[in-house]
Amino acid sequence: MAIEIIIGIIVAVIVIAVAYWFGYKSGTFRRDKYWEGELPSHRKDAIMKSRAVLGGQFSEQLAPYLPEFEYLPTECRFIGKPIDFIVFKGADEKKIDEVIFVEVKSGNAKLNQHEKNLKETIEKKKVRWVEYRIPESLTSKGNVEDRIKDICDDK
Questions:
Q1: pLDDT digits (tens, 9 = 90+) for 100-138
Q2: Which candidate among 49, 79, 116, 145 keeps its CA 20 to 30 Å from the CA of 102?
Q3: What does DSSP say about strands 76-78 and 98-102: parallel, antiparallel, or unpaired?
Q4: Where are the domains of the chain?
Q5: List of residues 6+ apart from 93 with CB closer than 8 A
Q6: In terms of Cα–Cα distance, which of 62, 65, 71 is closest to 106?
């Protein structure tokens, strides 16, 4: 009787293992067939999104040369992130009257949260000028490596 139970358990384990293996292979086959049909549409979608991004990036840099752009291309400086351009209005006449931040969008594109935050900060006039001076010890003649080491050691 004990042998019959052991044989029954072994047969049950083998049946379960075979069923698991068959289910696994069947699932893998169905998954592969599904993706064979879906992959072309996913690739097409990825290509279209990539083209849209590249077209947008190209348009951003081309914007100052388009007829409806209201600032002179020579007064525009492309930044890219987090804002597309900074315009120094009046720079051509050597008298900057205004500094303008320009974000270029195409199609139905909207400002992202980072751009919205930057816009609000600029509109609140939380903009300032900072002048940074290079330490003289870095600009004097001598071994550059020693001067950098000395400055780093001082801190």
A1: 999 998 878 899 999 999 999 999 999 999 999 888 776
A2: 49
A3: unpaired
A4: 1-128
A5: none
A6: 62
